[in-house]
Q: What sequence folds into this?
């Protein structure tokens, strides 16, 4: 006996197997991200420090990436529709665009990430506290320094270049978006030399910086893994499309529908992540 | 071989069905995607872990009974393998904590769940619903591989610097995050693998039950065991992801130094300096996410066991299960409500009265369907002509044992009484009555019951009865005294067996304050009983292997004269299970139907028209 | 591949022919347009001062929910799915809501001003958890 309903729907449920499987899987994903969203709410409500909205991530870039995902969601459904209309070449085009969008998204995200990892906040023993960039032993903008790392490398002093507008503080009136506010402030980019012994805490904008960045990197990181996973599957289907569709068209169309459902879900998660992390 | 094979028409088969193509050793036994092979793989691996988890506790029981004395025979071995933590063959506090945490983790996630859900579910469910295999055979294989890897990671964690995880199977932060051992990191990675494995399995089970039921196998004709597996799969599917999220966050805390679960103002050990973390996190968040899985998990441990018991009881009373529909609706209700009772594990965390009341109410509500299930199974015995064979004995003793475990849970569900009982040996006794003489007995019943289908031979009855009676006695000698210890205030997770809180005479009142010496002395008796329990498993282990080669051959495909579809296949079932798609004409438990020729009518037997 | 083998019955719209799918394409493009506009509105709304920051959050979430629903209903075809899928998605939504609401509730229902805490104020630096 072979396994039935791998491509054709079962009469009483009206569903083929993979469709049931993907929706069950998505249900579990809802619980996974649901738990992370709950954690976000609780951490935010109980946080000591939460950045002022819109002051910390680059909004134009975030908006761009949101648009990229939305466009990919449209093309993925068009790809499926093309198959249903028996238009293989159109399918290839749309599926290709979707994969391209995924690559753009991940590329942009990694630029955003590395920017943050080179950007620092420093707390001094005298109680003052700035954000900015550091020079250590002549290296400009190194990654991942902490106070402990300075001590263990025997560094006695660093040069710190203050941001004109401290990260996470409320933006001045009328200015919106990450970068633009800078010009508005009077004394931009002053550098100072700071002794290691005067430092209380030094942290780049990495997960350990604060619970805000912890949840930001965890949620977007997990989301990015989903994007990459989805892109790999769609790529596999893209390169095998020709022969597969010609020999087993229904099965292939089903595979595209199922992978598309996953992709829409990834988009759906981002639709929530964007406002709660970037905007509010 | 037609799917409508009945007891009368066929003599024994050789356990030998030739496949059309021989896939070779690796594809048949190691990387097989056949649900029966995967079920057996799960079964053997989890039985091995069950044994390992028992060894851990057997060693811990030595430390509890004779604190600070070198462990005989194996003490030296422990020292040689694990080093300083077992210096002089004595179990140190750290080692006790590691073993305790890993006993809990292994028993729950690597022994009982994979045995009850994955092993029995994989082998039996597709056969019972008349399906050729699982919906997604390759995902099924991936599920076992993730499970196996998870087990390897957990096992390896014993040998990393600092030893295995020490913060209990619950891994509460900040303790879990701040104990300086890599074992916790391994624990988290292992858990992520195990959770992934469960999710893959759960998707497969649900899809299979929805999609692959044979023609005529309507929902209300499903054997009740299938229903329990269905609900269990849903619990795994929807309750596990929050723990996966929490596990990821704790992993990030541990590896990247974040503070998801670390509060502001945290001190390192000794209270000297502020820990070098940003703070701002919430230890209670971990507890919520953990118990959101943790409570439904206990139903994962018990529902499949109840399903097995129902099958065995129906077969050996030779009459239909009483209240099939009530059983179905109850198991659905249990599954549903189990998602909103979790914080009854957190009464002591300083929750407010409103929320405590909510959770205590839902906890009392969920006990109703559980009691309905147990009652139906009890009533099913009434008027039956019971066969007292080994599977039936285990199934029968499940009922009162689980009853004791369940009823002693009620005082833990009320927050006023839980304030006193929380974290004492009373809790240990309560949930072990549920899982040890409860679930494990049901699993033994399942092994003895389905063994003939898998191997074509029955297990030895005499050895089975010895195994049963010794186990029943020892289990109670182990766990019953723990109720007494707990009520007298003895804490769990104490490496010195409670000596720290040994009672002293209070000069003012003249009364004893602390744990009475007599209660601490019970540790010795309990430990002896626990070791005896271990010895009582020898007949089983011997029987298990010996019967494969020398057990009595079954006379036909249906040696227990059962009604459900798994007995209407060749023995053992070939790849694809049924030679011809079976068609189902009746409910699952048509025993002793008045006017029928035999005292059972298989589900796939048409009405004599 | 013969023509009557074209994937008519594949997917969720059994019985719908090619012609139906081509009609849907307009819908998909339209929804995509709405989503892009919705994104613009969210970004814009975040710059407006509605008087209270909570209101800003509420509005942001509302727009996000509308957008997400469009994706789920049209792109994922939830507007016309089979009963089995509705059933288990319904349960999922119930559970995830329970997780969120009950956890939040338990955090807001802490006995902050209980008699015990009034008499035993926690020491400022030593509020670490050690209950288990
Ligand atoms: C059959 C023989 C078993 C014996 C003699 C036994 C004994 C014990 C004892 C004495 C403890 C308390 C250790 C302490 O608090 O210091 C314990 C803890 C525990 N046991 Fe068992 N157990 C057995 C089987 C099982 C099974 C089948 C499960 C399956 C779920 C299980 C799950 C647990 C868990 C979850 C804990 C709590 C671990 C922790 O504190 O984190 N045990 N067991
Ligand atoms: Cu519970």
A:
């Amino acid at each position: 006996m072979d396994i039935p309903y791998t491509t054709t729907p079962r009469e009483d449920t009206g569903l083929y197997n993979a469709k049931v499987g993907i929706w069950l899987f998505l249900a579990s994903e809802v619980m996974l991200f649901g738990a992370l969203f709950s954690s976000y709410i609780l951490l935010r409500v109980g946080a000591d420090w939460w950045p002022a909205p819109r002051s910390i991530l680059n909004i134009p870039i975030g908006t761009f990436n949101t648009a990229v995902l939305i466009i990919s969601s449209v093309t993925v459904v068009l790809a499926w529709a093309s198959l249903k209309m028996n238009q293989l070449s159109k399918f290839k085009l749309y599926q290709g665009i979707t994969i391209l969008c995924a690559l753009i998204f991940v590329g942009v995200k990694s630029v955003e990430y590395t920017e943050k990892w080179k950007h620092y906040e420093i707390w001094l023993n005298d109680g003052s506290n700035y954000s900015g960039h550091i020079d250590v032993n002549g290296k400009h903008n190194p990654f991942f320094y902490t106070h402990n790392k300075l001590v263990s490398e025997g560094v006695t002093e660093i040069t710190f270049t203050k941001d004109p507008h401290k990260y996470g503080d409320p933006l001045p009136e009328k200015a919106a978006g990450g970068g633009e506010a800078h010009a508005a402030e009077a004394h931009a980019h002053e550098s100072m030399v700071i002794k290691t012994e005067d430092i209380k805490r030094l942290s780049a904008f990495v997960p350990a910086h604060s619970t805000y960045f912890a949840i930001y990197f965890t949620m977007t990181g997990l989301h990015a893994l989903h994007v990459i996973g989805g892109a790999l599957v769609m790529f596999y289907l893209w390169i095998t499309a020709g022969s597969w569709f010609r020999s087993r068209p229904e099965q292939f169309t089903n595979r595209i529908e199922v992978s598309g459902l996953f992709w829409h879900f990834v988009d759906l998660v981002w639709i929530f992540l964007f406002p709660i992390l970037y905007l509010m | 071989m037609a799917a409508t094979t009945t007891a009368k028409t066929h003599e024994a088969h050789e356990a030998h069905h030739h496949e059309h193509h021989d896939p070779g050793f690796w594809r048949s036994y190691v990387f097989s995607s056949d649900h029966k092979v995967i079920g057996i793989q799960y079964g053997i691996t989890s039985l091995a872990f069950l044994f390992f988890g028992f060894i851990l506790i057997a060693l811990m029981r030595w430390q509890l009974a004779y604190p600070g004395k070198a462990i005989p025979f194996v003490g030296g071995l422990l020292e040689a393998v694990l080093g300083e933590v077992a210096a002089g063959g004595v179990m140190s506090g750290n080692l006790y904590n590691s073993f305790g945490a890993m006993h809990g983790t292994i028993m729950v996630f690597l022994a009982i769940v994979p045995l009850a859900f994955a092993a029995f579910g994989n082998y039996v469910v597709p056969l019972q619903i008349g399906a050729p295999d699982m919906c997604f055979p390759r995902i099924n294989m991936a599920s076992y591989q993730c499970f196996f890897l998870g087990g390897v990671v957990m096992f390896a964690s014993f040998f990393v610097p600092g030893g295995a995880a020490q913060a209990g199977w619950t891994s509460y932060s900040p303790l879990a995050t701040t104990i300086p051992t890599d074992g916790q990191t391994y624990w988290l990675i292992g858990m992520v693998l195990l959770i992934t494995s469960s999710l893959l399995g759960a998707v497969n089970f649900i899809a299979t039950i929805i999609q692959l039921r044979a023609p005529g196998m309507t929902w209300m004709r499903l054997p009740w065991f299938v229903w329990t597996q269905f609900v269990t799969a849903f619990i795994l599917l929807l309750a596990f992801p929050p723990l996966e999220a929490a596990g990821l966050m704790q992993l990030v805390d541990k590896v990247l130094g974040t503070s998801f679960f670390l509060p502001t103002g945290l001190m390192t050990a000794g209270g000297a300096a502020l820990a070098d973390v940003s703070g701002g996190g919430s230890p209670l968040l971990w507890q919520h996410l953990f118990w959101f899985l943790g409570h439904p998990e206990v139903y994962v441990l018990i529902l499949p066991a109840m399903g097995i018991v129902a099958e065995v009881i129906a077969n050996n009373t030779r009459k239909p299960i009483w209240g099939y529909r009530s059983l179905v609706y109850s198991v659905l209700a249990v599954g549903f409500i189990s998602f909103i009772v979790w914080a009854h594990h957190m009464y002591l965390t300083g929750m407010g009265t409103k929320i405590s009341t909510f959770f205590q109410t839902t906890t009392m509500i969920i006990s109703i369907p559980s009691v309905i299930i147990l009652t139906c199974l009890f009533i099913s015995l009434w008027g039956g002509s019971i066969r007292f064979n080994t599977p039936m004995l285990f199934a029968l003793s499940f009922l009162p044992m689980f009853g004791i475990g369940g009823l002693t849970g009620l005082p833990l569900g009320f927050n006023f009484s839980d304030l006193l009982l929380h974290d004492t040996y009373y809790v240990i006794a309560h949930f072990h009555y549920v899982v040890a003489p409860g679930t494990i007995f049901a699993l033994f019943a399942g092994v003895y019951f389905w063994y003939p289908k898998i191997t074509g031979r029955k297990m030895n009855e005499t050895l089975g009865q010895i195994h049963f009676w010794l186990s029943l006695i020892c289990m109670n000698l182990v766990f019953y005294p723990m109720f007494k210890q707990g009520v007298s205030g003895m804490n769990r997770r104490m490496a010195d067996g409670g000596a720290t809180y040994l009672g002293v005479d209070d000069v003012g009142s003249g009364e004893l304050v602390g744990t009475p010496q007599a209660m601490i002395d019970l540790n010795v008796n309990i430990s002896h009983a626990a070791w005896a329990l271990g010895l009582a498993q020898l007949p089983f282990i011997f029987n298990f292997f010996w019967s494969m080669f020398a057990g009595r051959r079954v006379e036909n495909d249906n040696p227990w004269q059962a009604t459900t579809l798994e007995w209407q296949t060749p023995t053992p079932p070939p790849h694809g299970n049924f030679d011809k798609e079976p068609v189902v004409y009746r409910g699952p438990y048509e025993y002793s139907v008045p006017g029928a020729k035999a005292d059972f009518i298989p589900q796939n037997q048409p009405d004599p028209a | 591949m013969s023509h009557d083998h074209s994937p008519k019955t594949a997917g969720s719209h059994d019985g719908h022919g090619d012609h139906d799918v081509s009609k849907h394409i307009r819908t998909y493009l339209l929804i995509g347009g709405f989503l892009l506009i919705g994104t613009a509105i969210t970004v814009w709304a975040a710059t407006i001062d509605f008087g209270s920051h909570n209101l800003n959050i509420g509005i942001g979430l509302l727009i996000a929910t509308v957008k997400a629903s469009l994706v789920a209903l049209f792109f994922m075809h939830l507007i016309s799915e089979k009963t089995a899928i509705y059933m288990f998605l319904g349960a999922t939504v119930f559970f995830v809501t329970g997780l969120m609401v009950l956890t939040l509730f338990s955090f807001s229902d802490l006995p902050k001003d209980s008699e015990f805490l009034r008499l035993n104020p926690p020491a400022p630096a030593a509020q670490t958890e050690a209950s288990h």
User: Anything to note?
Assistant: DSSP finds seven helices and six strands in chain A.
